[in-house]
Structure formats: structure tokens, C-alpha cells
Specification:
By secondary structure, the protein is α/β, with parallel strands linked by helices. The longest helix has about 35 residues.
Length: about 300
């Protein structure tokens, strides 16, 4: 069922006349002419099918139906004014503190951005950072001040800035090496292989690139989503994960994960900073430039 549009302009005029008891007083408050006020009242009466005002020598008087209507509208309009004032106050507070909304892929937020934010917050206490963990395909980038995109720089018309390089390689808990310093690539065929739907590289592609012949049906595969849960599974010794060097960085540095196979894959740029809007405020530029100082891109 299609909902009819409310005549909001005429309703606001009616509320002002009912509250002030005068067409002229309502015209002065709303910065309209008395004839425009009368026109809106007549249009509302035609829409409702009732007489709203009874003309008297000293002004106008509400009809019984109009008095009931005005009482119900008064509470609703008070709620609207309160809601509007609260949102406006929030907007003023955000403008005063310099709110910056950053959208980033969820796993990058968990493993890369969040651990670095304390340093930024200490250096810029007046900037209010809001992090939204989402993929660009799942959200409207125009709703955010800064967007970190993943994959090829499809958006930005060539103006996206390279932010981070990553290498996909196997990682596992040290216990899975059983005391050996490393494993041969072929030995991965006997390991429980963890994958996540967000992985850009499959285990099948990894084996094929190394010229290893394998039976796909014989692989011991597990799928765990999202990827940060899959990484935690690898940390707990569930299996070997084929994952980004960026997202596993913290666990590798603390020794919870190791790279079981020695290899020299060339990193590729995977994360990009989409261009800022022309009207971006100074706090946004500060956060954007700070992100660029965190880059690991060499070229």
C-alpha cells in the first residue's frame, strides 16, 4: 500500500496559527504573507475535509476537530524539534572535535589499523577517529571521510594512493613444525590447510605455481570465516593458513605464527587510499597524511 505524502508545509502553518491564535502572528513568525497563510490553511482544510478555523472579529478560533488535531500535532512536533536539536548539537560537537570517519576492510582494521591508532590519538587528541570495518563493495564510500580499498585501485580515476604491500604465504603455529626449522613446500600436502573466503590466493594456486602435482580431493582443507578467525585458528595449531603478511604481522613478531616454508615471493600492492573529497576538512587531511606515514610501499 502506497503511503500518501504529508502536507508538511501546510501542517506547520496550521500549528503556528493554532498556537498563536492569529493569522498575522503566524505570518510574521514564518516570514510569510497573510494571504499565503490563508492559502495553506484552505489547502489543508480541503485535504482533511474539515473546517479548521472559525473566523471571529478578533482573529480565529479552532473548530472542535482542529483543537483535537492541534493537541496531537503539538506533541509530535515537539519530538521532531528535540530530535532535530539533538542531531544538530551532535554535528556541532563533531565539527568542533574534528571527527574523521575511516572505512577499512575488517581484517586490516583488526590486525593493522587498530594497533597503530594509540600513537595517532596521543599525537592528535583533538581529532575524533571513527573506524568502520567494511569492504568498499558493501558500503557507500561517500559516507566516509577516508576509505582504504583492497585489491586493484578500481575507484579514484587513477588518483588512489598506494598504502600497503602484502605477500601471501603459509603460516602456522611453531608446534606444527615438530622441531624442524622449516618444511618443504610439498609437505604442505599432508597438513590441514585453512582457507578463508576473503583470501586472494588459493592453496590450489599456491601448489600449482610451485610445480607440485597434487590430488585436489586428497587435500585436508578447512574453511574458516572471517579471515581474522581463521588466523586465530592457525595460532591455536588447528592447521596452516595461506594468509597476508600484513594480517599476520603481529603474530609473527610475537612468535605465535611462523612461516613454515622458506620462499621469496615479491610483495604486491593490495591496499589503497581512495582520494579525498575536495571539501575535506583539516583533521581529515591530518589523518590521511598520517596513514601515508604508515605505508610499507617502496615505490
Amino acid at each position: 500500500m502506497t503511503r500518501s505524502r504529508l502536507p508538511l508545509r501546510a501542517i506547520s502553518v496550521f500549528e503556528a496559527v493554532a498556537r498563536l491564535g492569529s493569522l498575522r502572528a503566524a505570518a510574521d513568525e514564518l516570514h510569510l504573507t497573510p494571504s499565503a497563510i490563508s492559502h495553506q490553511i484552505r489547502a489543508l482544510e480541503a485535504r482533511l475535509g474539515v473546517v479548521l478555523f472559525l473566523r471571529e472579529s478578533r482573529g480565529v478560533k479552532l473548530s472542535p476537530a482542529a483543537a483535537e488535531y492541534a493537541d496531537r500535532l503539538r506533541g509530535l512536533l515537539d519530538h521532531m524539534r528535540t530530535a532535530t536539536d539533538e542531531i544538530a548539537a551532535r554535528g556541532r560537537r563533531e565539527a568542533a572535535t574534528g571527527t574523521v570517519r575511516i572505512m577499512t576492510p575488517p581484517s586490516l582494521a583488526t590486525h593493522w589499523l587498530i594497533p597503530r591508532l594509540p600513537n595517532f590519538i596521543d599525537a592528535h587528541p583533538g581529532i575524533d577517529i571513527r573506524v568502520f570495518a567494511a569492504h568498499t563493495k558493501d558500503a557507500n564510500v561517500d559516507d566516509f571521510d577516508i576509505t582504504i580499498g583492497y585489491g586493484a585501485p578500481a575507484r579514484g580515476k587513477g588518483q588512489s594512493r598506494p598504502l600497503l604491500e602484502e605477500t601471501y604465504r603459509p603460516y602456522c603455529a611453531p608446534s606444527r613444525l615438530a622441531g624442524a626449522p622449516s618444511l618443504e613446500a610439498r609437505q604442505m600436502l599432508t597438513q590441514p590447510l585453512i582457507r578463508s573466503r576473503d583470501n586472494d590466493v588459493s592453496w590450489e594456486a599456491w601448489f600449482t605455481r610451485r610445480g607440485i602435482v597434487f590430488d585436489p580431493w586428497a587435500l585436508h582443507r578447512l574453511q574458516i570465516d572471517p579471515s581474522y578467525v581463521a588466523i586465530e585458528a592457525a595460532v591455536k595449531g588447528v592447521g596452516v593458513i595461506l594468509e597476508s603478511s600484513l594480517l599476520t604481522e603481529e603474530h609473527v613478531e610475537t612468535g605465535r605464527l611462523v612461516a613454515p616454508v622458506i620462499e621469496q615471493d615479491r610483495p604486491s600492492v593490495s591496499y589503497w587510499l581512495l582520494p579525498l573529497r575536495p571539501d575535506a576538512r583539516r583533521p581529515t587531511h591530518i589523518a590521511y597524511e598520517w596513514l601515508l606515514t604508515q605505508t610499507n610501499c617502496t615505490g
